[in-house]
Structure prediction request, 150 residues.
Amino acid sequence: MNPRLWPGTQGDHAGSRDAGYSFVETVVAIVLMGTVILGILTAVRTSVQASSVAFESAQTETVLKNAADWVQRAEQMCDYDEYVEAAAEAADWEPSLAASSSELLNRGGATWEPDCSNVSSSDVQRVTISVTSPGRGITRSLMVVKSNVD
Prediction:
């Protein structure tokens, strides 16, 4: 066997270094890989959070639209909380996360009046529905105009 073919044997040049990586090169490589992995993990975390917010926002809007549909189908009255809370309960949410308020269009047709104690089927009514999600507290509101115009 020729001793010059094997590193570290007497046939090598005296004082030459091993062809491996130095400690500093290894540390620099680990730091660079850690930085890249940290950036990827941060991007994944941000993506998951954004997806969660979008999902909860979509759920909130679904409850809001269901509540608006139930209010629109109900007979005209002063208090629609029963229907709005039922829409929240249908999504397994606390009923207190949904609320409504009603206003009547005055006879002159110029302003909305908050007093709806004497509502009749011929009146024009504006119902404001608000829904707040249970997790992040995302709030959405919608106004529904009710009238029995034939």
Q: What stands out?
A: Strands lie at 98-105, 112-113, 125-132, 139-146. The longest helix spans residues 23-73.
